[in-house]
């Protein structure tokens, strides 16, 4: 019997939440721990109607002190199409990229796959009724889910505080549910 090919996925967004990954990608997905991506910063770019706010992305930083923390998931190659759909790869919302992360409580680095916005966050898609001061902000709901995932994953306290201090746009106060279509 052939072994299934697995790879590491570095999630820095709402995909840090185990309930989201188990529901939308694979109920048997395995959290391998958390890691940091040195020399990168977390930004918010393209506006997303479903989340009512801007989506996160990573970008290389000119400041070597910048870091993005996230979760390492072990993903079976057979479920990668589901993860791609969840991230909107087919709709050119996100694109896959490979990064080298430093595994927490380990002196080792690991190669991992992650996603970044396909359109760099220069100007998010804004609707006429969205006030300019709300540009580049995630919805309240998205940010809450991101913070929940970071806390659940045991990311460092200072990073949790940093996430909690990100300004949101106040939207997403509805039911707290986001519909996810898995085809």
Assembly classification: single chain
* Biggest sheet, spatial arrangement of strands: 1-5-2-6-7
Uncertain spans: 122-128, 174-183
Q: Give the ordered list of helices and strands.
A: EHEEEEHEEHH
Pfam family, one: AIG2_2
InterPro entries: G-Glutamylcylcotransferase, GGCT-like, GGCT-like_sf
GO molecular function: gamma-glutamylcyclotransferase activity
Enzyme class: lyase
Question: How would you sum up this structure in a few lines?
Answer:
With 183 residues, the chain is of the alpha+beta class. 19% of the residues lie in helices and 33% in strands.
Written account of the structure:
It comes from Nezara viridula (Southern green stink bug). Keywords: Lyase. This is gamma-glutamylcyclotransferase. It is an enzyme of class 4 (lyase). There is one protein chain. The protein is α+β, with helices and mostly antiparallel strands. It is built from 4 helices and 7 strands. It has a 5-stranded antiparallel β-sheet, with no helix packed on it. A two-stranded antiparallel sheet has the order 3-4. Strand 3 and strand 4 form a beta hairpin. The C terminus is likely disordered.
